[in-house]
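Note to self: keep these together.
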Amino acid sequence: MRKDVFSGRWVIMAEAATVRPSDFHFKKFVRETTFCPFCETNEASTPAEVFAIRPSGLSANGPGWSVRVVPNSDPRLRIEGELGRRAEGFHDLMNGVGAHEIIVETPRHDRSLHEFEIYEICDVIRAYVARIVDLEGDKRIRYVLIFKNHGEEAGAHTITHSISQLMALPVTPRTVKTKLITARDYFALKEHASTAMCSGKN
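Structure:
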């Protein structure tokens, strides 16, 4: 991770990557008709699960689940290691420590989130909460972001199984921090004004 000297934001940088003009052209969307590692019975094709919702008595990393969470096989951040914050030239750097996980929202390949029953959506949200609570126990983690790419232009042309992603960051994003500070200051101002009104002060 590298701190942008102009904006003060931390940015995740690839250690070795080349951006080509062709990377900015979208390929025609084609629904997968071949093997999908996120479908039920293909559990051995993903990293070992870190969380799953399944009936009691069933084995981990096997079928029978309704929601399953696994580490991303090509993570942008890794849970192992120390932050190692340091200076290099005029840049502030730190190791890419954090988490990058895949929330597989359904064992079925032919269903999307908008087609789920309410109880199925509740299971997905339960998985979100469980992972956030677990990651909160890691003192290196400062912020957890959950996002979902939907549609070809959002980058969902490579994976058509219904999934969300989670990224746990070692920093609080600058825009979020600004909102938190503003909310804190606003609360303090209104609390002060409310106290003054109740005491009869102007």
